[in-house]
């Protein structure tokens, strides 16, 4: 029983991480119909920058902020300089973002090398935490991670549901052309949303680098998980990303614990099942 | 006629090219080109950019590795005349299965789903040891002797690659003119109208993917005979992106683009080391890809075509 609960907690930790990574991805997709294949590279960049910030300043929250801002900046540059040029031509955007992710991954490998990095955490988070009901210790950082994902999720929901920017984003998701006709500078909004998506990816990268570790290949791992999470949850839906992340994170950890060789098959089976029953994802809206 | 025009100098290549050029440049380009052709076929005629072509090629490769001679003591040996049809059938079936999963997805959705399938297959081959031999994979794969001809020797291998490439191009060109091929293009353009005249779209889409699997499988077999090994890395993100890069650089609008792209890619891959640090090859190929996507969305084939038509127009202008 204890084993089961620990596995469940691990699954929730992973789900939190997947949600952080996928939320930015789905936000960008929902508004712009851009599949940002460089999302994993942005996440990894955030992780590396977060590591550098933590190494120089030693302040963990600053590392999260630094990693997030760096990825946000690069994301904005990508949208402003390259992807924004062919807005509406999704296939070309996707291919261009793949080219960008290849370049970024290679340059990061050049700069940071092939070794594994882990962000140093403050002492308060580094230890374990005795869970009240189970009587077993659990890494504090992982519990913080779950809390962090919940806070980010609520904040994202507040931004989208309650602020003016959120109203513009929602209007853009529903009818881009109408928004443009009303006089909003859609290109600028796209850059802002891309930066927001980059911010989420970068913060996810720093958190991943703290709770687990990062190395070349982490970008692919999180790009894949983001893809699967939004395919399952519904593309463009933040709630769908949360639900998808929960399903995939738990499935992966149960798979790892009870059928180690075939963990990845569970993930895959969920995806195929959802596609067969609801091609637009669990909480996605039908395209047609 | 035009095919013969291209084919003749290539068939003569063994007369003046050395073994390195025959096998490592032309043979490799042709075998990669066949895999890329299956992607170009899907992109041009079904309107789907699939990331799973390396997976289909890998299925054929793994079948040959498992049932053929290898040095890792996994699988059991069958004669080559059983293995080769079996590998092609497996590749075709894998194509059909992927098509069945992705049948309702188009455009970017299809990209995401086929990519997810391909990467899931990569992780699966890495973790499974009973069939795929995990991380290590299979090594010591050898092309067989058929009718007394040693297919491992450079010239026969090159001619085999050329033959398979030419055959698959002819096959694609014939297939798209067949009733099924025309229906596939109709599904690309107007799936709802196709449904309205009483043709269910699912079997058509699955057939297109299965055909692509067949083509990719033949390229996959050539590729493992060239590499003499296959492992999870052969179906990982690197080769997946390579095939996409080849197809996009060459041009997704026309089947021949796959081979143009393959030649360009292999030349870059082989000779870039002379003017750029070997480690930074990915940056170079990424920049080339980005430049092609931004400047010439129809790839090198599109560039050549517009350039040819422009130079062909010039004398016409003088006449009038």
UniProtKB/TrEMBL annotation, chain A:
State the Gene Ontology BP annotations: amino acid transport
Places the protein is found: Cell membrane
Q: Which CDD domains match?
A: TM_PBP1_LivH_like
Q: Which residues does UniProt call coiled coil?
A: none
- Listed InterPro entries: ABC_transp_permease, BCAA_transport_permease
Keyword presence, Kinase: no
GO (cellular component) term, any one: plasma membrane
Q: Which GO terms describe its molecular function?
A: transmembrane transporter activity
Q: Which UniProt keywords apply?
A: Amino-acid transport, Cell membrane, Membrane, Transmembrane, Transmembrane helix, Transport
TM region positions:
6-28, 59-83, 95-115, 135-160, 186-214, 220-248, 255-277
Annotated membrane topology: Multi-pass membrane protein
What the record says about family reads: Belongs to the binding-protein-dependent transport system permease family. LivHM subfamily.
User: What is this protein called in UniProt?
Assistant: Branched-chain amino acid ABC transporter permease
Automatic annotation (TrEMBL), chain B:
Q: Where are the transmembrane segments?
A: 27-48, 55-72, 78-101, 108-125, 157-176, 197-224, 230-249, 256-276, 282-304
Answer whether the UniProt record assigns the keyword Transferase to this protein: no
Q: Which domain of life is it from?
A: Bacteria
Q: How does it sit in the membrane?
A: Multi-pass membrane protein
Q: Which GO terms describe its cellular component?
A: plasma membrane
Pfam families xref list: BPD_transp_2
Record's subcellular location: Cell membrane
Protein keywords = Cell membrane, Membrane, Transmembrane, Transmembrane helix
Q: Which PANTHER family match?
A: ABC TRANSPORTER ATP-BINDING PROTEIN (PTHR30482:SF17), HIGH-AFFINITY BRANCHED-CHAIN AMINO ACID TRANSPORT SYSTEM PERMEASE (PTHR30482)
The molecule here is called Branched-chain amino acid ABC transporter permease
Question: Which species is this UniProt entry from?
Answer: Parasedimentitalea huanghaiensis
> Upper taxonomic classification of the species?
Bacteria, Pseudomonadati, Pseudomonadota, Alphaproteobacteria, Rhodobacterales
